[in-house]
Amino acid sequence: MRAALDAARAAGRDGEVPVGAVVTRAGAIVSIAANAPRRLCDPTAHAEILAIRAASVTLGRDRLGDCDLWVTLEPCAMCAGAIAHARLGRVFYGADDPKGGAIEHGPRFFTQPTCHHRPELYSGIGAIEAGALLRAFFAERR
After folding, report:
1. How far is CA 82 from the centre of its chain?
2. Which of 15, 32, 35, 69 lies at a C-alpha separation of 20 to 30 Å from 1?
């Protein structure tokens, strides 16, 4: 989670919402990404999506069942869908997202009968630091 938090801080410095994500395999980092929708002019450029894409390219496959995703914020519905399609084994995330989250909030994506893959889920990892980054980022903009 430390690497994901570092990526989130970098995103915040670049004017992006401070969210970072890391894909690991057997405890080793495969990819690291930060939110970049503004920089890439791409509304799908969430940290999770970018980390999953990079891991898939690095490993040369679209199925990441032996990999874990570490992300600083509860994934949204789009990212939850990507997690399911990539077949990630476990997801660890930091801060809850009552407005946009889709795991413990909103649609609770992985509990839906139409969801074809359900990773193991672990929340609250680094939540205090991740939440503080987000609150500080948005406080500066209000």
Report:
1. 10
2. 15
* Three-state secondary structure of 87-118: CCCEEEEEECCCCCCCCCCCCCHHHCCCCCCC
Q: What is the pLDDT of residue 76?
A: 98
Q: Is 120 a catalytic residue?
A: no
pTM: 0.96
Contacts of 140 (CB under 8 A, 6+ apart): none
pLDDT digits (tens, 9 = 90+) for 37-62: 999 999 999 999 999 999 999 999 99
Name the active-site residue from 48, 104, 129, 140: 48
CA distance 22 to 94: 12
